[in-house]
């Protein structure tokens, strides 16, 4: 350790400093070249930072380094890459530059309109879902009504903008599915961060005589106890406690929800839920192997 802590003498320090001084003297100063308006005759404009602009070819859009901002290198690119344009004058390249700017402006405006049309499509799909209307109402009623209103109040040109909003039945279905997936993803993140939660399960039969299983969760979210709808799944087999548990367990596995974090289960008190041997609650207890699971039966109010 002593050799690392030993202080060097003055002569060795001078020897160490001398090479760095010589290296500093040999360093070349970096020159940042500026764009000259006369370079457009070589088919070049500029892009990037104004203090260190980069030459950009008007014809192909290639960008060169700042060191290439010299007539010889610009001319070399023109003759090697675009020999058919070597005899063109400045006015030709200026027209090409203006055309490129107009195209960029048009593309930018088209993208902005597309984003607004996409946002409007999601808002309409959200309204349809909240009102529980069929998806076809968007293309059979909502869109025609909007187009008629815009035509009478704002003119025929504005109708074209409304027509850009996609509101077909399939589109509305996809929009609702996207929003549903986003809501579920946010809920799962909160549920996993909360760790402990309570589960409420119930099954019913829909108008098609198919068994539907619905689940709610209750957990602490930002110091508040909140209850959220979790899922509604079809029970393909018989509505037994084991089958109900299988459907719920499959959903938990997909969402990476741990049964060990479930501290309470609430059911309607039916035999398939509270059965001692094959009831849903019994299957949950066997899964987590804990017998302090709190169970309760909710009372339906009439």
Q: How would you sum up this structure, described in words?
A:
This is Zinc finger BED domain-containing protein 5. The chain contains ten helices and seven strands. With 302 residues, the chain is of the alpha/beta class. Strand 4 and strand 5 form a beta hairpin. Helix 4 (90-131) packs across helix 7, helix 5 (137-153) runs antiparallel to helix 6 (156-163) and helix 8 (241-255) crosses helix 10 (280-288). Residues 1-7 and 10-18 have low confidence and may be disordered. The strands form two sheets. Strands 5-4-3-6-7 form a five-stranded mixed β-sheet, with helices on one face. It has a two-stranded antiparallel ribbon with strand order 1-2.
Order of H and E elements: HHEEHHHHHEEEHEHHE
- Fraction of residues in β-strands: 15-25%
Q: In percent, how helical is the residue content? A: 40-55%
Number of helices: 10
Unreliable residue stretches: 1-7, 10-18
Broad shape: elongated
Give Rg in angstroms.
35 Å
Alpha-beta classification: alpha/beta
In order across it, which strands form the biggest sheet? Answer: 5-4-3-6-7
Average pLDDT score: 81
Major sheet details: 5 strands, mixed
Total count of strands: 7
Give the N-to-C terminal Cα separation.
86 Å
